[in-house]
Amino acid sequence: MSATPKEFLDFVDNNADAFIKRLSEAVSIKSVSGDAAYRSEVFKMSDWISQQFKAVGVEIQQVDLGKHIMDGQELQLPKAVLGRLGNNPNKKTILVYGHFDVQPANLSDGWNTDPFVLTAQPNGQLVGRGSSDDKGPVLGWLNTLQYHHDNKKELPVNFRCCFEGMEENGSEGLDELVERESKPGGWFDGVDCVCISDNYWLNTRTPVLTYGLRGLSYYKLNITGPARDLHSGVFGRTVHEPMTDLIKLMSTLVDVNGKILIPGVDEMITTADVEERKLYEALDYSIDDVEASAGASIALSTDKVEVLMGRMRMPSLSLHGIEGAFYGPGAKTVIPAKVSGKFSIRLVPPQTPENVLPLVKAHVESEFAKLGSKNKFELEELHGGKPWVTDINHWNFQAARTATKAIYNKDPDMTREGGSIPVTLTFAEALGVNVLLLPMGRGDDGAHSTNEKLDRSNFIEGTKLLGTEIRWNMYNVICIFQAHIMPL
Amino acid sequence: MSATPKEFLDFVDNNADAFIKRLSEAVSIKSVSGDAAYRSEVFKMSDWISQQFKAVGVEIQQVDLGKHIMDGQELQLPKAVLGRLGNNPNKKTILVYGHFDVQPANLSDGWNTDPFVLTAQPNGQLVGRGSSDDKGPVLGWLNTLQYHHDNKKELPVNFRCCFEGMEENGSEGLDELVERESKPGGWFDGVDCVCISDNYWLNTRTPVLTYGLRGLSYYKLNITGPARDLHSGVFGRTVHEPMTDLIKLMSTLVDVNGKILIPGVDEMITTADVEERKLYEALDYSIDDVEASAGASIALSTDKVEVLMGRMRMPSLSLHGIEGAFYGPGAKTVIPAKVSGKFSIRLVPPQTPENVLPLVKAHVESEFAKLGSKNKFELEELHGGKPWVTDINHWNFQAARTATKAIYNKDPDMTREGGSIPVTLTFAEALGVNVLLLPMGRGDDGAHSTNEKLDRSNFIEGTKLLGTEIRWNMYNVICIFQAHIMPL
Question: Can you give the residue ranges of the Peptidase M20 dimerisation domain (chains A, B) (predicted)?
C-alpha cells in the first residue's frame, strides 16, 4: 500500500492541461486588492473560488468582513471564503489557508506579456499575475479535492479552508474572523493542524518546508525644527537643521555589515553552536544563489552559513527612507522642516516588539541627547509582529517531509524565512496547533514583481505534493492512534 | 538744491493709488514660468511690461530667447524685454534688472485670498503673487520714469533695463543674452553700473544694501547595490544595503552645529577680526529675528554676530534629501536598490565650485572606502555657481546709501545674502562694472510662499528710493567729473 497511489498521480498528470486552463481562468480575474478600481474583480474572484470548491463537494460560506477606507473611499471588503469537507472524528482535520487577491500589475511596468493572461513559455514557466502568489497553490488544493470528488474517493482528512481577498493589502478583517471561527462551534473548531502554501523554495531546485518566520518592528524617527521648510541660502549655518540631526541618528543604528548597533538587540540572540551551524550547512543554497537573486555581488559574507543565519536566525535592521525630505530628481535647496526616518528591525525569538522597543527608545534618546540639537525629537513605533518558530518534529512536518520525499525524490530543505507572514502567527495563536508552511513555487517566481511565474512542474508536482501530504497525515493519524502497527 | 525734489516725492504720494492699481493689473496676469499651462500668461506679461515702459518714453525691444523643453514639451521661452532711455555721454548709464515671471500659486496651497488678485489688507500689506517678487520693484522703476515723462523732466542718468520672464525657472537664455548685449554695440554697451531690486531687507524695519551673495555647489552621492529593490525580510542582514552606506556617508559631512566636516572646506575661510565682527554687530538684527522667521527657537548660537556670519560670510552645508528611498507615509519594508543623497554647500570667497569639488570628492571617496561596502559609489556635481562680493565704497553704493538716508532717514544695513542670485554674477562678469542689490521688500514678504505681500509703504517709499538713487548717481557723476565743486 502506497501513500501516493499511482491512480492519483496519473489523474494529476492526465488533467494537467485542464488544471492549467483553470489557473488561466483564475489569473484572468484581475483581483488586485490594493487598487479601489479593481475591487469588483476581487469580489468576482471570491465568487469564482466559492463556485470551484462547491463543484468538488466542499461546503462553502462566503463571509462579509465589513468595510474599510482606502484612498479616501469607503469600500466593502472582499468576502472571505470558508470551506468544509468531512467531519469524521477518526480523521485529522487540516485547515488550509490561501489568498485569491493579487498585487497590482500593468503591462507598462515591464511585463513581457499581458499580466492577466496566463502565458506558457517554452521553458515551462506559466507567466501571469497571481500564478505563484497565491492562485496556483489555492488551485493545487482544488485539483487534489477534484481527484477525490471525481473518483468518489473518500478524503483521508477532514478538510477546512480559509481563503481571503485582502492578503496583499494588510489582510484587513482576517484576524477577527480567525479568532471568531477558532472558538468552540466555529468553522475552525477541531482543527488539528494548519497548512499554508504562500511562500517559496530557497532556490529553484530543492523543495522546502518552512518552520520559522522573523517578526517585525517598524519605527519612525521624527525630527521637527522650523515651522516650515526653509531656504538653505537664507538659513544654512543659521539654525539646527532636522535632516542633519536625523542622518546622525540613523547612522548609529546599524553598521554596513548588518550588525545592529543598538545595545542589547543583537545580544538577545544566542550564538549558533557547531550542531546548529550544520543545519544551515546542509541547505541547498550558495552565495551565488543570494547574489543571483539580488542581482549583484553584494553578499555580506563569503560563508554561506553566515549569510543564511543572517537571514533566518538573526535580527536585521534596514533603513527604508525619509518622509518629509526632498526626494525628487533634480536639485532643490530646501532645509526640510520636519523629517521622519523610517527603519525596521526583523525579529527572531526571543525578541518581540515589546522587549525590543525599550532598547531602541533608550538608544535613540541617548544619541539624540548627545547631539545637543535644539530641534524636537520623537520615536514612533508604527507596527510590529512577533517572530514565529515551530517544532519541525511535529507530525504535520513529518507528513510533509515524507510526502516531499515521495514526490520529489529528495529531502526538503528545512528553512526559516527572513520575512513575515502574519497570518501564520494568527492561526498558531488562535488555534494553538502546529502550522506548516509548504511552498509550491520557486525562489525566482517574482511574486511581487513583473513577469511573475509558476513553473508548470511546480504546479503539477506541487498538486501531487498537497494530495500526498494529506494522505500522509492520514497515516500519521493511524500511526498515532494505532501505535505504529500499520506498515508504511 | 536737493537730490530728492519735493515735487518728485509729492508726485509719488499723489499717484500712490494709481501705482497700486497698476501693480494689481500686473499681479492679475498669471505669469507662472514653471508651469507650461501658464506660458501664454508669461508672454502676455512680456507684452504688458513692454507697453508700460513704452508709454513713459522708453525704447523697447522684445527679444526671442528660443525654445526649451519643460515637462516633456517643447516650449517657446518668454521674450525678454530690453529698454533704453537717454544716451547722454555726460551722464552715467545705469542698467536695471528685474523679472516679470512669478512662482506658482493656488488658493488651495493655503492663500487667504486669490493669489492673482492684489488684496490690500488693513495693515497696509498688498497681498498677491509677485507683489514683492518681482513685479513691485519693476513697477517701482516704471513709477520713477513716469514722473520724468509726465513732468517732462530730463532723466538724471541714461537708463537701460533688462526684464526677463524665466527667473523663477532657471533664467534660461538670459546668460547668452547678457553676454551678447554686453559687447561693443550691444544694448548694454556703455553701462556704468547695475542695480538689481530682487532681494529683501534683513528684517521688517531697516533698509538694506546688499554687496555679497553666497555661491553654491550641489552634489549627489549615488550608492548602487542590488539590481532591483529588495524585500527587507528576505534580504535583511544578507546583503550590503545602499541606504546604510549612504546614511553613513552623509553623516560625515556636517555636524549639528553647522560646522562642515569635509577637511579643507571651512579652513579656506579666514577668521573675522574684531573690526569685521563690528560690521555684523552693527546690523539691525537679533536672534529673535532669525527665530521668528524660522518659526522656532533653533538658532545655532545666542551670539547674533556668529549667526549672521554663519549666514553671510561662512560656507554652509545642508542635507536636502534622498532620491530613490521610500519617502511616502506609512511603513514599507523595502531595501532600496539605488539611492542618491542630495546635499549642497553654499560658498563664500575664495571658494568656487572648482576649488571645493576636489575636497568633497577626496573626503567622500575616503569615507566610502573606510566602510568596506561591496556596493558601488559615485559622486555627481549637479550644478554650481560662484559666490560674489563687491566693493561697498563704489559710487554705486554711495549713491544708494545716501538715497536711503534721504528717504528712510536711517543708514541702510550693509548685508551679504546667504543665498544666490545668479544673474548678479552674470552682469558683474559680462560688464565688468559694479552691481548693487537694492531691495524694495521686507524680510517677511514670503517671496516664494503663500500670501506673498509687499507693504504699501515699501512700494511707495521704495519708488521714491529708486528715483532718488538715480538722482544721486547723477550727483556722483558730477562729483567725479567736477571734483566735488557742486554743493550737495
Answer: 211-369
Q: Assess whether A83 and A165 both reside in one domain.
A: yes
A193 with A241, same domain: the answer is: no
The CATH number of residue A392's host domain is: 3.40.630.10
Whether A305 maps to a domain, the answer reads: no
Q: Do residues A323 and A391 share a domain?
A: no
pLDDT digits (tens, 9 = 90+) for B349-405: 999 999 999 999 999 999 999 999 999 999 999 988 999 999 999 999 999 999 999
Closest C-alpha among B465, B389, B460 to residue B425 = B389
**CB atoms A331 and B382 under 8 Å:** yes
ipTM value for the complex: 0.87
CA distance B452 to chain A (A): 15
Please indicate whether, in this complex, the C-beta atoms of A239 and B298 are within 8 angstroms of each other. Answer: yes
CA distance A91 to chain B (A): 37
Percent above pLDDT 70 for chain B: 96
pLDDT tens profile A383-412: 889 999 999 999 999 999 999 999 999 999
For the CA atoms of chain B, what is the radius of gyration? 25
Q: How many domains does chain A have?
A: 2
Chain-centre distance for alpha carbon A139: 18
Spatial distance between the Cα atoms of B450 and B448, rounded to a whole number of angstroms: 7
CB burial of B350-375 (b: ≥16 within 10 Å; e: otherwise) equals ebbbeebbebbeebbeebbeebebbb
A384, A217 Cβ separation under 8 angstroms: yes
A101 is catalytic: yes
Calculate the CA dihedral of residues B471, B472, B474, B479 and round it to 10 degrees.
160
- Interval B142-163: pLDDT, tens: 999 999 999 999 999 999 999 9
pLDDT at residue A3 in the model: 65
Residue A302 belongs to some domain of the structure: no
SS (H, E, C) B333-383: CEECCEEEEEEEEEECCCCCHHHHHHHHHHHHHHHHHHHCCCCEEEEEEEE
Q: What is the CATH number of the domain that holds A357?
A: 3.30.70.360
* CB distance A197 to A424 below 8 Å: no
Q: Tell whether B236 and B122 lie within a shared domain.
A: no
Catalytic residue among A41, A133, A164, A167: A167
Contacts A237 to B, Cβ<8 Å: 258, 300, 310-311, 314-317, 346, 418
Residues A440 and A318 in one domain: no
- A50-54, A121-125, B108-112, B450-454: which range is least confident on average? B108-112
DSSP SS3 for B157: coil
* Domain termination site, one of A330, A358, A385: A385
CB contact under 8 A, A256 and B245: yes
Domain span holding position A337: 215-269+314-385
